[in-house]
Amino acid sequence: MTKKTTPKAPASAKVSSSKSKTKLPVAGEGLPLGRSGQRHPPFGVGLWNVGRWDASDGERLRAAVTRALERQIPWLDTAEVYGMGRSERILGDALSQRDKSALQPFISTKLSWEHLRPTMIRPALLGSAGRLGVGRIDAYLVHAPDASVPIPPTVQMLETLQGEGRFQHLGVSNFSLEDLEIAQGSLQHSEVVINQIKWNLLEPGEGSALRDHCRKTGVVLEAYTPLAGGVLAGRFLDGKGPPRKDSRSRRGAFAVEEGETNPLLPRARRLRDLAVDAKVPLASLALHWLERQGAAPIVGVSSPAQVDELLELWAKVPTQRLLDRAEGVARGDED
Ligand SMILES: NC(=O)c1ccc[n+]([C@@H]2O[C@H](COP(=O)([O-])OP(=O)(O)OC[C@H]3O[C@@H](n4cnc5c(N)ncnc54)[C@H](OP(=O)(O)O)[C@@H]3O)[C@@H](O)[C@H]2O)c1
To answer: Given the CA of residue 144, which atom of ligand 1 is nearest to it?
Structure first.
């Protein structure tokens, strides 16, 4: 394992602009954002759960967002649907109070699948920008396609808004290969530079053709749920899963059809044992495996301590040999 220094400054598109003097502080040099000449930060923090807490969690989650800015996490991801605007609002509040001498992180947010009709897009975008308190959003993603709304008019309206300078980079999320090709083929001047998909060591999904297409056409793969909801940070491995009210109890490593067992938990335990033997945190394996696939992981955090831990996890880079072994274990080679 090699040790990286803790980042001192964010790695954002702004950081890599010609005016910037700051170099990317973390692994790699980030990922090229299409033809823009800018680069996408190699990892970031996602603010999904910041939109959906019980009242008792509010202060802790606000503090996590503030800590993410203080520690100069290079990229923060949110969406208008997270808490019906609450996640964006809290990020906007924290941005307005941050140390203005610090470089601003790369901010991405998403257009709801309920607002894909062209007349709905401008108000949705302006709503997000207003809550975030930014004149221009760094990356604006279509959160998910809706089979009842054709893709071309949606992305063409987004192209118009991008041309007005409302946001810098156009992305999509949860798009299949076919959806992505339609979106790419509908644009006149712009390009889709991001596809945010669910992807982690334990749940590689069925999308290898999609991922190859993204790599070939210069679309950054953002990997959401990179820790399999915490399982790949060593959570829930000792018999006790998340509480029933927690949506994680019904998906991923915990989703079990009647009469079946889910192989993911035993594999996660083997991965934990592998990590312990190698003296590398399990989550470092998970995050750097994605990095080696050319993806940018977007990690969910629910406390300031998890922000600090993320920076430590990212700083610990496993060897390629260990990552290959982990991939085999995750695939079930040792079942
Ligand atoms: N585009 C989409 O449709 C979509 C869908 C889902 C997610 N996302 C994005 O991806 C982000 C991350 O996804 P996610 O929250 O599903 O997945 P995740 O990153 O795989 O898991 C996050 C959870 O892992 C646990 N965790 C994090 N750091 C830890 C640490 N150091 N030690 C122990 N446990 C730790 C926390 O659980 P506890 O809270 O229990 O502590 C945290 O809530 C979201 O916030 C969102 O921005 C996008």
So the answer is: 3
